[in-house]
Amino acid sequence: MPSPPVTFVRLDKWLWVARLYKTRGLATDACRKGWVQIGGQTAKPSREVRVGDNVSARVGVMTKTVRVLALANQRVGAALAGEIAEDLTPLSEYEKRPERPLAPPVIRPPGGGRPTKRDRRSLKEALGYED
C-alpha cells in the first residue's frame, strides 16, 4: 500500500533533509537560537514547512536563503538535495565565508608522542591562531 503524499514536514527535519545542517540536532539548535526564519519570521523547530516557503538559515558566518521545492521525510543524496530546495542566497553571503588558511605541514617524527605545550604554541603561531 503506497504511503500518502507528504503535505508538510517539521522545519528541523526539512533543514536536515535539504542538507542545510549536518544533523537534525544542529538544525533544532539553530531554530531554538532564532537563526532560522520562514517568510521573515523566526520559526520554532516544530513549525510546518510547506512547498513554496522561503527559508533563511544562518549557517556558520553566512545566511543561506532557500525556497522549498519539495518535501521529504528521509534524507536524500547530495545530488537530489537540489530538487528539494532552490538556493536563493545572494553572492555577497558566499563571499563572507572565510578561506581556510593553508597550514604548513606538521612533521613529527614517528613515535614522538603527544605534542608538548611548546609544540602546540608554536603550531598555533604558525597557523595564525590567537588564544
CATH architecture of the domain at 9-94: Roll
CA-based shape: elongated
Ranges with pLDDT <50 over ≥5 residues? none
Strand content: 15-25%
CATH domain class of the domain at 9-94 = Alpha Beta
Please estimate the helix content.
25-40%
Please tell me how large the radius of gyration is.
20 Å
Distance between the termini: 59 Å
Q: Mean of the pLDDT scores?
A: 86
Q: In order across it, which strands form the biggest sheet?
A: 3-2-5-6-7
Looking at CATH, which topology of the domain at 9-94 would you report?
Answer: Structural Genomics Hypothetical 15.5 Kd Protein In mrcA-pckA Intergenic Region, Chain A
Largest sheet: 5 strands, antiparallel
Order of helices and strands: EHHEEEEEHEHH
Q: How many strand units? A: 7
